[in-house]
Amino acid sequence: MLSLLVPRAGTLMLALAGAATFHLLGLPLPFLFGPMSFCLAAALTGARLRGMGPVSVGARTILGVAVGASITPQVVAQIPQMALSVALVPVYVLLIGLIGVPFFRRLGFDPATSYYAAMPGGLQDMVIFGQEAGADVRALSLIHATRVAVLVTIAPAILVWLYDAPLTGAMGAPLRDFGAGQLGWMAVSAIVGWKGGEYLGLFGASILGPMITTAALSMAGIITQRPPAEAIMLAQLFIGIGIGVQYVGVTLRELRMFVLSGLAFVMVLAVLAAAFTEFVVLTGLARPLEGFLAFAPGGQAELTVLAIVVGADLGFVVLHHLTRIVVVITGAPLMARYMGVPRPVRRRP
Question: What digits encode the pLDDT tens for the residues 55-73?
């Protein structure tokens, strides 16, 4: 136990130092970029950092509650208007696969690794699928971590420069503005949704479970606020740590082979994302800000944070990413089997 607590305490202190430094320098999203930058730099210099384990996973429930609280009867009434742009998501995922698999194969990766490296799903889900299919788990971890890290770094700059979206928007009301009742319902919704989702084998249970339970309470008028700003900052802190510690123990060979491959593929993803964003904007299916965030192939948690910060239509953005994740999770094993990659078996936790 002590062998885990000491490195985790050191990692947390480093992350807090990063957040404080970025905050004092007036840099954007200090609770996300500060921990990510400091942990990433330390990991690349050989520091033996450790992730926060269940605490980090639990922090993601905050984002699930935030999304669920944004799902109101008014948002649900707008879903038919989003149908055409949502229908483009499977096409988007298919194109990524058709381009991505040959891309990684040409770089020397085996079929299983190539397939699950190309799929724009959650890092953990793709690693689990790939492991069951006999893929190179370390390669998948670093390729997907690089995808998320680069997109999380680039997306805010694009939001500011191209879309004139401020990164200083209020993430929520301060904690002092919340009553005990609202906080209590949020806590119950987060825990029940998370653990209930895990029991049912729901992918991304720490986010999707609380999102579902909170959405139900929001539709019923019981939860009427998003989580406090302090809670959103806490979620950012652990997301930043999670990205940074993925690079612990990375070797020069892994940097050259896996990380550079991930960087190159991000460029491919950027072109595809830009094309789909331009299409939905020009056809009037989405506003520019929402179109960009909806088709950015980053992690669901990270893009949820960005959508909250810039004040985008959270329902629109999350619905598209949820569709992408569902398409990847349900379609990836089927397509992988069609392409000759062994089909993984997901074990219930």
Answer: 888 888 998 898 888 888 8
Q: Is 95 left (phi over 0), alpha (psi -120 to 50) or beta?
A: alpha
Contacts for 194 with CB less than 8 Å, ≥ 6 apart: 58, 61, 64, 205, 206, 209, 210
* pLDDT at residue 348, rounded to an integer: 42
- Please, what is the average pLDDT of the chain? 86
Q: How far apart are CA 138 and CA 250, in angstroms?
A: 9
Q: For Cα atoms 290, 60, 220, give the angle at the middle one, nearest 5 degrees.
A: 70
Return the domain boundaries, the chain: 2-338
Average pLDDT of the residues in 294-305: 84
326, pLDDT greater than 80:
no
Which CATH code, of 3.90.120, 1.20.950, 1.20.1530, 3.40.91, is assigned to 2-338?
1.20.1530
102 three-class SS: helix
Among the listed residues 201, 226, 231, 206, the one whose alpha carbon sits nearest the alpha carbon of residue 215: 226
In residues, how long is the chain? Answer: 349
- pTM for the full model? 0.76
